[in-house]
TrEMBL record:
GO molecular-function terms, A-Z: hydrolase activity, acting on ester bonds; metal ion binding
Protein's name according to its UniProt entry: Succinylglutamate desuccinylase
Cofactor: Zn(2+)
Alphabetical UniProt keywords: Hydrolase, Metal-binding, Zinc
PANTHER family hit by this protein: BLL3975 PROTEIN (PTHR37326)
Succinylglutamate desuccinylase/Aspartoacylase catalytic domain mapped to chain residues: 17-115
Entries under InterPro entries matching the protein: AstE_AspA_cat (IPR055438), N-alpha-Ac-DABA_deacetylase (IPR053138)
Pfam families assigned to the protein according to its UniProt record, in alphabetical order: AstE_AspA_cat (PF24827)
Length: 326
């Protein structure tokens, strides 16, 4: 049996009932800040340096063992897109989903720890406002907002799935070669990952982007977020971590558009970092055809990815949000 044939799941069941928290890392195999943070927290719980007061804490430090072993984002495909229990498993990530989706559904909430390709500070991503719509009906806005404000990051982003749905509509209008990859990236379900799946089961979910992949501070950001989440849920004593008292409220941003790379010849106009400001009409990049890609309005660029493949996300655009964290 190899390390890619199973998921290693660490669970701590408190002797007093309470919330059921799932913490995940390395959903993308080369994003390991959460993996390192969980390794230390697991050690501290085992050593009695931390005490679980109530509830159940489940840690999965490496959610995608194949991608992790290969030192890259994906094994056969992107696990954090089109996440659902497959009827027939067609690839490695489908086999993970058969285990991961029921595990997610057993919990009340998930803290999913990631990092990103470009430079930039850590930030959190939260779900939609409470709604009864078809795309992502939701009723846990208050919990996500309050918890996100405690994580210690200076920026919080909303609007993922609605923005992704907009990009998918454009993607579906383009011809594709009929391959499984092309079918997946144009599937209406493709924007659904760990957090969206958790919300579909009635739970709450937060994605924490802990910084650039190699940021030496990333594991500390992840560890502090896990501890503060446990304190927020009453699962850990407040003395275990310094309380978060921000000097100013986090900046709230709303994603509103996603632009795909169409050709490997598409190039950015400069080296962008997440949350760099853009002015209306500013050139963000140039298509292989020579066509300029212009910012439609004033705002920020998010997740600029020089390594993106044709037909997948090249960058996102965000603008200020009026959301109140409470």
């Amino acid at each position: 049996m190899t390390a890619t044939s199973h998921l290693r799941i660490h669970q701590f069941a408190g002797l007093t009932p309470g919330p059921r928290l799932l913490v995940t890392g390395a959903v993308h195999g080369n994003e390991v800040h959460g993996t390192q943070a969980m390794t230390e927290i697991i050690r501290q719980l085992d050593a009695g340096e931390l005490t679980l007061l109530r509830g159940t804490l489940t840690c999965v430090p490496i959610v995608n063992p194949l991608a992790h072993q290969l030192g890259r984002r994906e094994g056969d495909r992107n696990l954090n897109r089109n996440l659902r229990p497959p009827v027939i498993a067609q690839d490695y990530e489908d086999r993970i989903a058969r285990v991961l989706c029921p595990l997610i559904a057993q919990h009340d909430g998930i803290l999913d720890l990631h990092s990103f390709q470009g430079n930039g500070p850590a930030f959190a991503m939260i779900g939609p406002r409470n709604n009864t719509g078809e795309l992502e009906p939701f009723s846990q806005e208050a919990t996500e907002s309050a918890l996100a404000a405690q994580l210690g990051v200076g920026r919080i982003v909303e609007g993922w799935l609605s923005t992704y749905a907009l990009g998918l509509k454009r993607r579906q209008q383009r011809e594709h070669d009929g391959s499984r990859r092309a079918s997946l990236i144009s599937d209406p379900h493709y924007g659904v990952g760990t957090t969206e799946y958790m919300r579909s089961t009635g739970g709450w979910a937060i994605t924490l982007e802990c910084g650039q992949h190699l940021d030496p501070n990333g594991p500390s950001v992840a560890r502090l977020a896990i501890l503060r989440t446990l304190v927020f849920l009453g699962m850990l004593d407040e003395s275990a971590v310094e309380p978060h008292r921000p000097s100013q409220p986090p900046e709230m941003l709303q994603l509103y558009d996603v632009i795909d790379r169409e050709d490997m010849g598409d190039q950015f106009a400069r080296e962008w970092a997440s949350f760099d400001p853009v002015e209306k009409g500013q050139t963000i990049g140039t298509r292989a055809s020579g066509e300029a890609v212009l910012a439609p309005s004033e705002g920020r660029i998010v997740f600029p990815n020089v390594k993106s493949q044709p037909g997948t996300e090249w960058f996102y655009l965000a603008r200020p949000s009026d959301r109140q964290l409470g």
